[in-house]
Design a protein that fits this description.
By secondary structure, the chain is α+β, with helices and mostly antiparallel strands. It has a single domain (2-64), classed as Alpha-Beta Plaits, CATH 3.30.70. It is built from 3 helices and 3 strands. It has a 3-stranded antiparallel β-sheet with strand order 1-3-2, with helices on one face. The chain starts with a strand and ends in a 7-residue tail after the last helix.
Length: 71
């Protein structure tokens, strides 16, 4: 698995997952339970992972749908 994006924006990962699911690209969210440790204030980023062989396609899908993320 490779990191596709890392964000503290709680709306970005559900959006990205939905777009990827529609294209048949499996994704997995990491650091979801860190909110328990941080008190749900949103300072620790969550990561969205995809398979290495689907990374380029996943980036393209997000880019084409206007999702901004860092490479």
């Amino acid at each position: 698995m490779e990191e596709l994006l890392r964000t503290t924006d709680i709306t970005l990962i559900p959006l990205a997952k939905t777009l990827l699911d529609e294209m048949g690209i499996d994704s997995f969210e990491l650091d979801v339970n860190m909110s328990v440790l941080e008190g749900s204030i949103g300072i620790l980023p969550r990561r969205l992972m995809v398979r290495r062989d689907e990374l380029d396609q996943a980036r393209r899908v997000l880019h084409e749908n206007g999702v901004r993320f860092e490479d």
